[in-house]
Amino acid sequence: MNKKFLFPFFVSVFAFLIASCNVTVDDNDDEGAFEEAIRNAAKEQKLSLPLSDRDFEKLPMPLQEFEMTYEVLDLFYLYAHTRHELGDRNDYYGVSKNILNYRNYPADYSDIYYMFDQMSCPFTNYFDPSFSELISEALFYSDYGVGFGIRLDTIEQPLSGDAVIANVFPDGPADKAGLMDGDVIVRVDNKVVTRRSVETIEEQSKEGDVFEFIVARGEELDTVNVIAKKVTTPTVFVNYRGDIPMITITEFTDTTTLVSGTYGEFLEALEKTAGAKATIINLADNGGGSVDHCEPMAAELLPANTILGYSTDADIDSSHLDFKQRIDTIAMMPSDFGKEGDGIAKDRYIVFIQNGGTASCSELMISSVTAARNAPVVGTRSYGKGIGQYYFETPAGGYAGVTSTQFFDKNHNTYHTFGIEPDVVKQTLKEAVDEAYRIAEEGTMVRTAGYSDTPTGHFPALSRKSGKPQFNRRDHFGAFKMKKAPIQGR
Q1: Average pLDDT over residues 286-293
Q2: Which of 26, 59, 197, 432 has a CA between 20 and 30 Å from the CA of residue 286?
Q3: What pLDDT score was predicted for residue 122?
Q4: Contact, 143 vs 97, CB < 8 A?
């Protein structure tokens, strides 16, 4: 995957932070390791202290990177001051060189990794510039890669079962070859295949590879050539049993097969299923994504002007000249994308499916709708991630993901750390789907469960253990709470 993506992410924020940086070292300051490093760098550059904004940009990049990421935590990390998690700069600067585990990190950024590792929230992370492309892809794009442009049925079919096409991606290779939802792939290049073997062939394919598919459609067999190409994966899929649609949402992101992203896909799905009296929303294994998508999607299932919930946000108090952190609680309303009026599915009977991989934005959508409508939930307890992050692009080209928000439902209750309990417990996805269809057909069950009383264990109170940095989409996947100019007043 060699996609290039350039985005002027939070440029205004860092211009602002440069102006507010506490690096005005002078001869009367008590010096620690950080102040000494600033003084020495200024002397080498023949700069006068205290530093001007322009002179600050002349400092070595590792110093700029450290100062900026510290400022981000100081201003936007929700627990920096409410839980007193953030210490002085000298608690972190120059410390990592004496800790064995941090020798695995790039030397220029090891102190920053150490600093972020002292914060208790596992979703507050620093990623050095080597992760830049991966992070931007995870933040702004759905999954993509070389493939056939199909989604196989993983609910009814085990790995050793038939390779049944659940969905064909619009304008993808399979679509252009004439394949359709419900087709069964019998052979590929004259070899009998299962669901797993088709997945393996697709994973190993290269762009331009041509594969001969023999597919069964009803009683007929057809032979087509499918050319593997780069495809962007949709994030919303529609499947039916009888006249009841199940809308599966895999993530919430800005750009998918549509430039309008997941919200645009969801609108299309609701329009496609217009007239349905009941609809199942499948959020199993959906780890979340952009709040700017899941909030208006929840609103499409609710009457106009319904409060989706509340959020407590860390922001900048610009009334102070030294720009201190401010904590505000605000009502969440479906204002993004110009949403006005009733949701187009406000009168449908809704059933949600969730499991332990249902997190963040998915939980926000479920809590928003169930608190307002008592829609039933089937599956297992959700992940319990009721927090959101700002993602800042740093001066060196890395990213700082900082937990800045905690979400509450319209009743001011939170599922954070505890998870959402289902009304009907079903351990497997197939069992949950079968039960959801049964409930949807009856159309009478209302929600009686709430949030769990015991922690899920995903959010320890103590600081995290450090080790070699790893890129894991799940580490920062969910409730990105992206705002391009968080320094502006509300």
Answers
A1: 90
A2: 197
A3: 87
A4: no
**Helix, strand, or coil (residue 15):** helix
- Residue in the block written with tokens 């009814």: 156
Rounded to an integer, the average pLDDT of 141-152 is 83
Please compute Rg for the chain using Cα positions. Answer: 25
Distance CA 17, CA 11 (A): 10
Q: Which residues of 194-217 are buried (b: 16+ CB within 10 A; e: fewer)?
A: bbebbbebbeebeeeeebebbbbe
pLDDT at position 412: 94
Closest Cα partner for 256 from 239, 271, 269?
Answer: 269
Residue 465's pLDDT is what? 55
CA distances from 328 to 16, 272, 404 (A): 20, 39, 11
Of the options 3.30.420.40, 3.90.226.10, 2.40.10.270, 1.50.40.10, the CATH number for the domain spanning 236-476: 3.90.226.10
**What is the three-state SS of 99-159?**
CHHHHHCCCCCHHHHHHHHCCCCCCCEEECHHHHHHHHHHHHECCEEEECCEEECCCCCCC
pLDDT at site 290? 87
Fill in the amino acid letter for 71: E
**CATH code linked to domain 145-232:** 2.30.42.10
Neighbours of 248 (CB within 10 A): 24
Question: Beta 387-393 vs 377-379: how paired, if at all?
Answer: unpaired
461 band by pLDDT with thresholds 50, 70 and 90: low
Task: Give the residues across from 379 on adjacent strands.
Answer: 354, 425
Please state the domain extents for the chain: 11-129, 145-232, 236-476
Does the pLDDT at position 346 exceed 50?
yes
pLDDT for the residue 191: 95
Axis crossing angle, helix 11-20 with helix 61-76, rounded to the nearest 10: 90
